[in-house]
Amino acid sequence: MYSKILILRFPKTVVRNPIVCGLTRDYDLIFNILNATVLPRKEGVMVLELTGTRKNFRDGVNYLKSHGVHVQNAAREIKRNNRKCTDCGACTAVCPTGALAVQRPEMKVVFDQKKCSVCELCVPACPPRAMEIRPMSQTFFA
Ligand code: SF4
Ligand code: SF4
After folding, report:
1. Residue 19: partners with Cβ closer than 8 Å, 6 or more residues away
2. How far away, in angstroms, is 110 Cα from ligand 2 center?
3. Which residue among 27, 48, 106, 118 has its CA within the 20 to 30 Å range from the CA of 90?
4. Taking a C-beta distance cutoff of 8 angstroms, is the pair 45, 8 a contact?
């Protein structure tokens, strides 16, 4: 069995279609959704673990791509460079999952990586560029 965590980005034209269900129905793959978010511009981001035979995995990824889904290996993560962070709070306004939030009464901005969907909206929103994308592998599917 082959298993990988993937980041799927759904354009707003297909975000409401039950595309992911086809992975089980047509490709005998097991999926476990770890995080799912609809972004402000209506695109969807989903982090899921996909398990099956290598061939079915490959065919399933091609199926997703044929439906306009951008598929990326989740071996990318968002980290905060705490030395750069000024607790300005700008990132909390764009984070759709609550991974970045203001802790009161200290008014410190806390980052809970477990809630992060790797949507990357915080990266350009952070004035000192404290939110960083760290690729753990260079394997991309799209
Ligand atoms: S990438 Fe940034 S904005 Fe997106 S969920 Fe993670 S912390 Fe929030
Ligand atoms: S926008 Fe950047 S500097 Fe401001 S709180 Fe968020 S991570 Fe820190």
Report:
1. 10, 64, 67, 69
2. 9
3. 48
4. yes
Rounded CA separation 72/47 (Å): 10
The predicted model scores a pTM of 0.62
Query: Which architecture, in CATH terms, is 2-73?
Result: 2-Layer Sandwich (3.30)
Place of tokens 């298993």: 3
Topology at the third CATH level for domain 77-135: Alpha-Beta Plaits (3.30.70)
pLDDT digits (tens, 9 = 90+) for 17-47: 889 999 999 999 999 888 888 877 788 888 8
Structure tokens at 115: 């809630």
Atom of ligand 2 nearest to the CA of 129: 2
**How far does the centroid of ligand 2 lie from the alpha carbon of residue 49, in Å?**
29
The type of residue at 54 is R
Ligand 2 touching residue 128 (CB < 6 A) = yes
CA-wise closest residue to 78 among 6, 140, 9, 133: 133
Largest Cα–Cα distance of the chain, in whole Å?
Answer: 53
Contacts of 1 (CB under 8 A, 6+ apart): 51, 52, 53
Return the SS3 of 77: strand
